[in-house]
Structure formats: C-alpha cells, structure tokens
Amino acid sequence: MDSAELQKLAAHTRSTREAGTALLLASGILALFLFIPHSYGERPQDTATVASPAAPDAFAKIAPDAKAAIVYDVVTGETLYAKNADAQLPLASLTKLLTVYAALSTLSPDTPVTVPEAATKLEAPRAFNVGQTFSLADLARLTLTASLNDGAAAIALATAERQGETESAMLASAAAGLGLSQTYAINGSGLDVSKTVSGGYGSARDLARLAGALASRAPAIAEATTVGYTEAVSLGGTHFRVKNTDPIVGTIPRLLLSKTGFTDLAGGNLAIVFDAGIQHPIAIVVLGSSKDARFTDSAALVAGTLAHFAGVASL
C-alpha cells in the first residue's frame, strides 16, 4: 500500500471515530432530556381532593320500642341498623323458624308428618286433631302463617325422631350449622316453659340470618307467610284455611317472609324478609317490643331501609 492510500485510510478512520463520538454525545444529551425532570416553566399540580358529601342517615330518627332490633342485608352481610342486635332474648314463636329450618335440613318437603296427641294439648293457637297427617311443606306453611303450636310440635318431634336426638339437641344442631351463636331452643314451638324460662332464646342478628336462610331454602313455604290466609289439605283430605298472625303483610313491598312471636317473657317479636331491589333480600327483626309496637317498629325500619337505598334521609 503506497503513501497516498495510507493517508486515505487514516482520514477515513478519523472520520469514523469522530462520527461515533458525536453519536455518543447526542445519545447522552437525549437521555438527559428524557429522564431528568424539568421544574422550570411548569405549573404546580393541585393535589387537593374534594370530599364527597356523606349519605344521609335514613335511620337517624327511628327509635324502636323494641329492646333489640336489626336491619340486615342478607346479600352482603352488612348491618344497616342495629339496636342491641347481639343481646340474647326470648324468641317466643320466632323459634318456629328454627324448627322448620331444622326439619328441612333432615326431611324432604314431601315427608308425611303426623300430629301426636301431646301436640294437641299445647296452648293455642292450635288447629289439628290427633293423627292428622300432612306433607312437611304443607304443615310448615300452615304452622308459620298462623303460628300454630301443635304444628310446630309435630314437626319438631318428627325431625328429632329421624335424627335420633332430643328436640333441644336437634334444634341446637340446626343453630350450630348456621353459626347462630346466641340461639338455642328447649322446644319447637317457643312456648314459655315456665314464668322464668322461655322455650327459645336468640339475638336479633341470629334471627335475621335464620330468616334469610329459610326464605332462600324454602321460598314456597316462606311465601305462604306473606299473605292474609294460607290453605292446605291434609293427606286424609281435610281442608284447612288459617289466618296470618301478621296484620301488616299487605303493606310491606315485595315481602318474602313474615313471622310473629309473643309470650309474656318475650313480649312482641317480629321477623320479616323483603326484597329491597332486584333479588336483594333484607331481613328485619325486632325483639322485646310490645304486642302492637312490634308492627310499627318494623314498618318504620322498612321505610328507613327503602330510604337508605334511595339515598335520602326519609321517604
């Protein structure tokens, strides 16, 4: 290679090296521009947040006469309103909800249930004679609607015999299966055992969960408790028509279940389940109210619930 060619090669090498250096320098400047934050010329961002106005308390002005009460969202498990909701109180005939739930956990709705002699000797309300037989579903519909003590006793006895347990043990198993920590029963009707001992005890929260579970498990049986009268025919062909013990069933929108209870020890109790929206059941329970105030207490809580979902203080 002559001197002229060597000079050309050297010049080309210098040119290539200078171009590479320039490229590296440009890349560094670009990186600085992209990744180093610039504070000059920018307006400071406003990071303050605006608090949303609190939803009105639809239950603020509701003061039930009941010793305990709850409005319980069966779908979410949320408590919308509570007054002594975990206090253990006498249940009276709300115990019948547990009796029917326990029976349906063991027996099919078509299981024949016969009224025993002992059941016909209980205090009123009663409707049956010794030996009359019904399907469990029909007897449960009549029993819950009219709060029949003989029907509840027959259902409890049949279920306990099938399980090989005493009535109280059978009912305790059903309560435990639902996680009802404050609930137990001595008999299936809820009748007071003495002047100081009730046939069943539980909390408003437990009964709300129980009522919601029964309405879900046996909607056809629960539906019978939402109208003024319920009818059924015994397996022997005898027709029965009983009146609902809850006089306000016609005033509660989309009612799914209703059950009354009253004894000297319990006072006035009421459990209802109604649909506050599309398949959104809400359970309301009042315990230890008066014979009449249990209905006004519940009606006020229904109105509060509807206002709550409407986002207003009252309707």
Throw out a few tags for this protein.
315 residues, alpha+beta, Beta-lactamase, five-stranded antiparallel β-sheet, three-stranded antiparallel β-sheet, 12 strands, 38% helix, disordered N terminus
Oligomer: single chain
Unreliable stretches: 1-47
Share of β-strand residues: 15-25%
Overall pLDDT, averaged? 88
Strand order of the largest sheet: 2-1-12-11-10
Class per helix and strand makeup: alpha+beta
Provide the gyration radius in Å: 35 Å
Describe the sheet with the most strands.
5 strands, antiparallel
Number of DSSP helical runs: 8
CATH superfamily: DD-peptidase/beta-lactamase superfamily
State the CATH architecture: 3-Layer(aba) Sandwich
Shape: globular
Order of helix and strand elements from N to C terminus:
HEEEHEEHHHEEHHEEEEEH
CATH class: Alpha Beta
Write structural notes for this entry.
This protein is of the alpha+beta class and 315 residues long. It has one domain (68-310): 3-Layer(aba) Sandwich (Beta-lactamase), CATH 3.40.710. The protein is built from eight helices and twelve strands. The chain has helices at 3-35, 95-106, 136-146, 149-163, 167-177, 204-217, 219-223, 293-310; strands at 68-73, 79-83, 89-90, 112-114, 133-135, 184-185, 200-202, 229-233, 239-243, 255-263, 267-275, 281-289. It starts with a helix and ends in a 5-residue tail after the last helix.
